[in-house]
Every structure is written in structure tokens, then in C-alpha cells.
Amino acid sequence: MNALFEPWSPAFIADPYPAYERLRAGGRAHWFEPTRQWLIPHYADVSALLRDRRLGRTYLHRFTHEEFGRTPPPAAHQPFHTLNDHGILDLEAPDHTRIRRLITKAFTPRTVAALEPTVRRLAAELVAELVKNGGGDLLAEVAEPLPVAVIAEMLGIPEPDRGLLRPWSADICGMFELNPSEETARKAVRASLDFSAYLRDLINHRRTAPGDDLISALIAAHDEGDRLSEQEMISTCVLLLNAGHEATVNTTANGWWTLFRHPEQLAALRADHSLLSTAVEELMRYDTPLQMFERWVLDDIEIDGTVIPRGSELALLFGSANRDPARFPAPDTLDLTRAENPHVTFGAGIHFCLGAPLARVELTASFGELLREAPTMRLAGEPQWNPGYVIRGVDELRVEL
Predict the structure, then answer these.
(1) Which of 153, 129, 151, 155 is nearest to 140 (CA)?
(2) Where are the domains of the chain?
(3) Residue 1: per-residue pLDDT
């Protein structure tokens, strides 16, 4: 089955879905030697394993690297791991429970609701500029700046500094790809150091001059006398930026690329904007922005008669799960009216995406604004795909009006 899964192949990245179909037909768990992971392609397994407490995003709450049969990361990479390992995405209970509870006190539904007018205003400004120019690169001019601006607004990042965020994020997220190179690690370490230093200064300033922003709320958040440490706050802010915009950026650009290739569905959406909420969910399912999510096996598990021992790593294939015919009728058909759509794009279990409500607000705002203000928008050139497989997206999306 290794020949079916080619995450470094441009052709595979451009369209992994036929290979996923063959992987599902071939079984429920496949050993992939190049990354030494078990590939899990079926929806039922992915959904169940996301909730299975015998798995974890980390193993360090129970084992040392050596006890788990793993080699510790090089000392030179430590700044990246310090940043990454204190964020809730890569923690398990009890630390995950404590930190998520404290973050949730600051990142409430009311916080997201209060951001809606800002999101709509930013989307309107970006789309107006695209329309004024008669088109351009939808990725660079709308898809990327909107979620970055929203997160920056939430965190209270001063406007002159906001251009720093996307490059830092891109360099850090390079480490989430399969078998990252030493050059990728070097960039991630530098970005981790620079971003952490910047946030440390901002947090210290907010301690003495709190504002109406999420950093001030994280400083104030407490539970039975417990508070977030400075490192936990820094890691949380970085995670909110990285996780809070990568998926939204790629859902926007990949989603419009999908719509352009399905003109009858695009025409139906343009004729009836009330389809927008189901359309956003369907676009996230149909071409999933995060194709893979990894889990460590903390205690032996069995999948379809195969014992997968402690110390193994699972690669849960979200893109495959979201096209599984056992869960989705006609999964390879784009249906913007699909009412029942339990996709796993935002994960499940204790690591379900904290920012899912905000992502939906942003996607609804940007798609809605483009449908209203650019009703004749069309593709101006076929895009190329970025080389990354895990976080999968086009490198640009040229459009004209």
C-alpha cells in the first residue's frame, strides 16, 4: 500500500482522493515505512480514535522519550518544542484540562460574537480592494489577510506589527509536515524565538496596562487560584494564530478552487445565498485543509485484527475520512445543500478545535462578501499546489471580475 500514499508527490498532493479510496478498500490500518506511521483511512476509525484515551498528542505526561522508544529531539530544536509543547494542541490531561479550562474563560462564545462586526468589516474592506483592482490573487489579498487580521485584533497586536505574524506562523507550521528537513527546523526555531520574545514583551506591557483584548483576558483568567504561566500564555497565543488561520486560509482558497470546478454548484450558491452555511461545511468536508492528524499510541490497541503496540504513531487521514462512503452518501459529489455533514475537519474529543466557531464566522463573512460584491468572479489561471501535504493548499488563486 506504500505506493498509494505519496505525500511528497506533487500529483498526489494535487488530488489525493483516488489514493484514499484504494487505501480504504485495502483495509483499516496500513504501515507506512517512510514516516514509520500507521495510516488510518476510514471515517469510523478516525472518529473513534480521536476520542480514544489510549492515544495522545504527546506521551511525555506518562513516559520519557527513552521509555517510549523514541529519540529526544536535538537540543538545537528546543525553542520550537518549548513553544509547541506548552500549547493545548500537544498536551494531554491533566495539563490540557487545566489550560483549556482557563483559555475557555477568556475565549468565550460572547468573545466570538463580539468579533462578528469586526470580521464582517475586515472582509468587506479586503473584498472591496479586490473588486476595485478588477481581481488579483484571492489567496494573498483576501484568504490570508482576513484571519490573520482577526487574530491580531483579538490578541491586541498593534497594527504596525501585524506583518510579522504570517511569516512566523508559516515557518513554525513547517514542522508539522512529514519528515521536516533540518533547514525547516532551523527556520522554525528562529521564528519560535522571535515570536516568543515579541509576545513576552506584549504580555508584560498588558500586565501593567490591560486592554480589551484576549491577552489581557488570558492574564486575568484564573480558576481556584490557578493561572496560566507566561510560557502557557505565549504558546496559547501562537497556537491561536497558527491553528486559527491556516485552516481558514486553505478552506477559503481551496473552497473557491472547488467552486470554480463545479460551476453548477457555484451558480446555485450565487442564486441562493441562504445555502452559505451548508456550503461552508461541505467545502470543508470535500477538500479538507488539514489532511492528517497524528496520535501516539500510549497503550496497545487493536485495529481489524492488527495489534498496534505502545510507542507507535497513527496518522489519522482526515481527507480520507471525509470522503468515506460508509458515512457520507456520494462522498465524491460536491453538494452544497448537504444537511447532515459530520465531517472531522475540526477534529473530535478533547482536542476538538477551540476556534471552530470563529473559523465559521470568518468563512461565512468572506464567502458571503465575495458572493455579494464579486458575483462575476472567475478563475484567471489554474493554481499550483504548495509542497506541503499535512496543511494542504494552493500557492495562489488568480481571479478576475
Answers:
(1) 129
(2) 2-400
(3) 58
